[in-house]
TrEMBL record:
Keyword terms of this UniProt record: Signal
Residue stretches spanning the membrane: none
The protein's name in its UniProt record: Extracellular solute-binding protein
Pfam families reported in the protein's UniProt record: SBP_bac_1
Signal peptide limits: 1-23
Database matches in PANTHER family: ARABINOSE-BINDING PROTEIN-RELATED, DIACETYLCHITOBIOSE BINDING PROTEIN DASA
InterPro entries: Bact_solute-bd_prot1, SBP
Length: 539
């Protein structure tokens, strides 16, 4: 990563104090001389915003910089915004390339805070605290406690984070309930062995179907979604940690992880696990879910908020539901609590930053305030009164097929990266209750309630609070890539399990210091973490 030009602390502080004094007062425009009579006219400042679509891409024909929602943002902020929105699959690569180039746009949205903070500490982004302190608009959405949670290890407030307080809680295994009805009388298996027997039954009946697949999010974390249920049930998700006997260790080093790898290898050898599990991108995985009856995936509860959207014709008979916890766990699992979801952190990794290279930081802040405005919230999550919803007895009632139920409007959700995407909860459930099959709706709501109960029992994750050293933070992606490679090779039989054990030992030597930092942080902040509701500090 290129080293950004460092700015004098004195000059930077002076600049922030000066700009903060007028933050929120600027109309985002600049005065220019007209062609006649020397009169001055107001012309919007032009700023550039790099942002991700968070998996909610613009429909074909929709201009990211020129659509009803961006035009509202431009009009309210008084800023002429030009957007660069990479595809979801390419986002991390293009984000890293942008950072390494040393040439940044005025505003940057990303969900990779570690990389952003590393660049910020080298001068890439400005500290936003002085702006935040003078902004009731942003404070209404992002509390001071949330800003503290988003503070960098170096003590700076580089980002305005995304809140997560309205999200359904928990995560776990989602399953094709219609296939459970077809092959298991609608009953959820209660053990891993029972799930495997069901997979074998489906595979025998539908040899062309792909019961278990995987989605490669990026090169660092190659195991995701369909590739994670087995690991979840063994209490050893990839790229995670476990607090055990007062010490933090990588799940990669656990006997449970090894057992999960062996189980995945067995399913791969039997043809149940997708032969292309290590190479599926988002598009391929989606196609297989649609056309090949992929039966399971691990995901978070907020991805299963019921909606009023009509199912695609090819998905009409598919019903995804949230599986309850197992009744009995594998004997290798040290404690069932390790196979339960966590409660959601009040903020997510998403955030928006202002570049130190921007010549118009005040106007950039005005854009951030617009992203946090009540008007945009209404537009994103409910739409327009009289067009997308009506009001009766003080209650908003969605118009069927409008608002977020209209697939052509759904992309606007990715603009909610300050409010939190799950702020759609109320409007989506209201719309779903109107049009969704009553049995399916009831099952979904029951699943969401179950997962929330599990998550509340587990509490918050230690990992949300730990602040790694710069050296450790730089090694996280590399260590994840090491885990991906060793796991995939073992599942595919390219290395033996004895060789896999050697990889685990090598991992401990190379990257064990990362988890030592976790342990040290936990020990030094135990009382504080307990107050936040981090129960695992006492595991």
């Amino acid at each position: 990563m290129a080293t950004f030009k460092r700015i004098s602390a004195v000059l930077l502080t002076a600049a922030l104090v000066s700009s903060a004094a007028i933050a929120g007062c600027s109309d985002g425009s600049k005065e220019t001389a007209s062609d006649s009579g020397g009169k001055k006219t107001s012309e919007p400042v032009k700023l550039k915003l790099f942002m991700g679509n968070s998996g909610m891409a613009h429909p074909e024909g929709v201009n990211p910089s020129d659509n009803p929602y961006m035009n509202f943002i431009k009009e309210k902020s008084g800023v002429d915004l030009e957007l660069e929105v990479p595809g979801y699959q390419d986002f991390k690569t293009k984000f890293n390339l942008m950072l390494s180039s040393g040439s940044l746009p005025d505003l940057v949205h990303t969900w990779y805070p570690n990389e952003a903070y590393q660049a910020a500490d080298q001068g890439a982004f400005i500290d936003l605290k002085s702006y935040y302190d003078k902004s009731p608009i942003v404070q209404k959405v992002i509390t001071p406690e949330m800003m503290e949670m988003a503070k960098s290890a170096s003590g700076h407030y580089y980002r305005i984070p995304m809140r997560n307080t309205n999200a359904p809680q928990g995560s776990g295994v989602a399953v094709r309930y219609d296939m459970l009805v077809k092959y298991n009388e609608g009953k959820y298996p209660e053990t891993v062995d029972q799930w495997i027997e069901l997979m074998r039954k489906v595979h025998a009946a539908e040899p062309n179907s792909i019961v278990l697949s995987n989605r490669v999010a990026n090169t660092d974390t190659a195991l995701g979604f369909g590739g994670l249920p087995i690991f979840f049930w063994y209490g050893a998700l990839p790229y995670q940690y476990r607090v055990q006997d007062g010490k933090v260790i990588s799940t990669f080093q656990l006997p449970e992880y090894r057992a999960a790898v062996e189980t995945m290898k067995m399913l791969y050898d039997e043809g149940i696990l997708d032969k292309e599990f290590a190479t599926n991108d988002n598009v391929k995985y989606g196609e297989k879910k649609t056309n090949k009856n992929v039966m399971f995936e691990y995901n978070s509860a907020d991805q299963f908020i019921p909606t009023g959207q009509e199912k695609r014709p090819q998905d009409k008979d598919k019903e995804w539901q949230l599986a309850p916890a197992l009744k009995q766990y594998p004997s290798v699992l040290k404690d069932p609590k390790y196979a339960q979801p966590y409660k959601g952190f009040p903020i997510t990794d998403h955030g928006i930053y202002i570049s130190s290279q921007s010549k118009h930081p005040d106007e950039a802040w005005k854009v951030i305030e617009t992203f946090a405005s009540d008007e945009l919230h209404e537009l994103i999550f409910w739409g327009k009164e009289g067009e997308d919803y009506t009001v009766k007895d003080g209650k908003k009632i969605p118009v069927e097929g409008k608002g977020l139920s209209d697939k052509s409007q759904y992309y606007k959700l990715h603009l909610g990266f300050i409010f939190g995407f799950s702020d759609r909860l109320e409007s989506s459930i209201a719309a779903a209750e109107q049009v969704m099959d009553k049995g399916e709706f009831a099952r979904r709501m029951e699943g969401l309630k179950n997962w929330e109960t599990y998550a509340n029992n587990t509490g918050l994750r230690l990992g949300n609070f730990v602040k790694l050293s710069a050296e450790a933070a730089k090694k996280v992606a590399e260590s994840n890539n090491f885990i991906s490679q060793a796991t995939i090779e073992a599942i595919m039989g390219r290395i033996t399990m004895q060789q896999f054990d050697q990889k685990v030992a090598e991992f401990a030597k190379k990257y064990g210091f990362i988890y030592d930092e976790y342990t040290n942080y936990m020990q030094e902040h135990k009382d504080e973490l307990r107050k936040f509701g981090v129960k695992e500090v006492d595991w």
